[in-house]
């Protein structure tokens, strides 16, 4: 399923904050989890129960801990995760620092990578750094803060390319 020649449907999440900001993920998000080949979570889970649920309901889960994740989550998740999916060299981290200079800073920190998924800000982000590193932040499906919508992303990784990146807005 994750060979370079086979398209990989990826679902991107971050900043779920369950159960602090929501009791559970919205039904639309769970449907996207179950439809994806790989779920990527860029930290700030808050509760271990969500990690357990995502592990049981997803085909494959790649996740990292965030600044709001305590010792039980940090014991099970890395600060940075790396994988190759559909020929795309992927890294996942929670926090990348201020938006000013983010692309250059991340390109220097993650050389040789094609895609960096991050969270922390709850603000959706889709840019390309010098050298071609794509940076994606799916926002938050549960805690939109000052954003007009709660969000998550999906993408298809195939043949080393990042395709069909979609930002999904969750109706209130």
Automatic annotation (TrEMBL):
Which enzyme class?
A: hydrolase
Question: Which family is this protein grouped under?
Answer: Belongs to the metallophosphoesterase superfamily. YfcE family.
> Which PANTHER family does the entry link to?
VACUOLAR SORTING PROTEIN VPS29
Q: What is this protein called?
A: Phosphoesterase
**What NCBIfam families would the database entry show?**
yfcE
Signal peptide region: none
According to its UniProt record, which cofactors does this protein need?
A: a divalent metal cation
Question: A Pfam family matched by this chain, by name?
Answer: Metallophos_2
Q: Which organism is it from?
A: Dactylosporangium darangshiense
Q: Which UniProt keywords apply?
A: Metal-binding
Q: Does the keyword Metal-binding apply?
A: yes
Taxonomically, which superkingdom? Bacteria
Domain Calcineurin-like phosphoesterase intervals: 9-158
